[in-house]
Amino acid sequence: MASSLIPPGSTIGILGGGQLGRMTALAAARLGYRSLIYSPESDSIAGQVSDHVQGSYDDHGALARFAAQVDVITYEFENVPEATVASCEQHKPVRPGRRPIHFAQHRLREKEFFRKSGLGTADYQPVGSEADLARATAFPGILKTCTEGYDGKGQARVESTAELEAAWERLGRRDCILESLVDFDCEVSAIVARGLDGRTRCFPIGRNEHRDGILRTTTVPSGLRPRTLAEAERLGVQLANSLELAGLVALEMFVTRDGRVLANEMAPRPHNSGHWTIDACATSQFEQLVRAICGLPLGPVDVLVPSRMENLIGEEANDWLRYVSDPTARLHLYGKATARPGRKMGHVTYVLKSDASPSRS
Ligand code: AMP
Fold first, then answer.
1. Ligand 1 contact via 265 beta carbon (within 6 Å)
2. 262 CA to middle of ligand 1, Å?
3. Hey, CA dihedral for 178, 180, 185, 190, is it positive or negative?
4. Does ligand 1 have an atom closer than 6 angstroms to the CB of 110?
5. Does residue 158 line the site of ligand 1, with CB under 6 A?
6. Could you tell me which of 287, 255, 254, 282 has the C-alpha nearest to residue 270?
7. Of ligand 1's atoms, which has the minimum distance to the CA of residue 151?
8. Cβ(6)–Cβ(72) under 8 Å?
């Protein structure tokens, strides 16, 4: 382990220039690391707070030059092409590596991996041909594209074979997965760090609310029964071990009305539902990522104060004055120039006294 230690003063390379890269770079800087962002945009929001090189994900020469300037590489989104990661791996360690994105980039592979790892899921079936349409029985269900869907995009609710056929046409007859609709009581997520030595640590389970497929709030403590929380944590840790990753993995889950916990989706990177940790946990998820990939001991994950994180989507971020005026609110803006509908512009974490609800004035 000592030989793989990457000490403060080293440089972390980050593939991707969005808010997750930005917050990782901020946490890295706090521990004395430099960060170098690699992204196709000329001015990324992560590049506002760290060094930045522009390059496309298939420019292997540019990737090699980037790798030469850093000591370890991570990625801030799971849709970075596998070939990009493979290219970087020839020069420097990439953590969490290629394997987690291989599964996380493709919903069908991901579900199969969950099942193989012993995690329960909704019933599902592949939809990639006319024959699959005829075989489909998972109704009511949600049809999702296998690749490139996020925040509810590339999804359609379907009640029958006829609706399924129409939805599949609309989605461009692409490879899809039909999942049966889960009658859930709530949604939760486990964010698990796994170090180079294989040790794991799970952040306290957050309870998530989505609207139109987009995460709106995460609340910790979640108020769920200890048995449910223990099961959610067990599944998250099992997944991290099964992936054998060094870094972070977030597992989004459904808690069904009959008390089961089912895996929905994973992301091998910091996750929106872990933003609360910056203001309300002993170690933030971003610092934990830095610790995990640099071979440092994982940090404590005690909840310092109850909290609720709310995403600021589109024009909501224009209300920044309200949030900075509220003593219970911790405002984070991502530096994005234009607010488009559905675009995550920032978040606010309300730190709550145990007996208080957040100020809404
Ligand atoms: P996903 O992109 O898979 O994370 O889906 C976005 C959101 O849609 C989830 O967080 C749920 O709120 C809802 N959703 C997705 N799949 C299902 C399902 N099989 N049953 C019920 N709700 C779902």
1. yes
2. 11
3. negative
4. no
5. no
6. 287
7. 2
8. yes
Residue 296: which of 16, 32, 17 has the closest Cα? 32
Q: What is the 97 CA–ligand 1 centroid distance (Å)?
A: 26
Cβ pair 46, 22 in contact under 8 A: yes
| Closest-CA residue to 237 (of 206, 191, 197, 275) | 191
The structure tokens 């999702």 sit at 144
Q: What residue owns the CA closest to ligand 1's atom 11?
A: 213
Distance 34 CA to ligand 1 centre (A): 37
Amino acid present at 222? S
Residue 258's closest CA among 183, 190, 206, 205? 183
Atom 16 of ligand 1: nearest residue by CA position? 142
**Cα dihedral sign for 270, 276, 279, 282?**
negative
Ligand 1 pocket check for 343: Cβ under 6 Å: no
Task: Write out the chain's pLDDT in tens, 361 residues.
Answer: 445 899 999 999 999 999 999 999 999 999 999 999 999 999 999 999 999 999 999 999 999 999 999 999 999 999 999 999 999 999 999 999 999 999 999 999 999 999 999 999 999 999 999 999 999 999 999 999 999 876 667 899 999 999 999 999 999 999 999 999 999 999 999 999 999 999 999 999 999 999 988 999 999 999 999 999 999 999 999 999 999 999 999 999 999 999 999 999 999 999 999 999 999 999 999 999 999 999 999 999 999 999 999 999 999 999 999 999 999 999 999 999 999 999 999 999 999 876 545 444 3
Q: Which residues contact 227 (CB under 8 A, 6 or more apart)?
A: 259
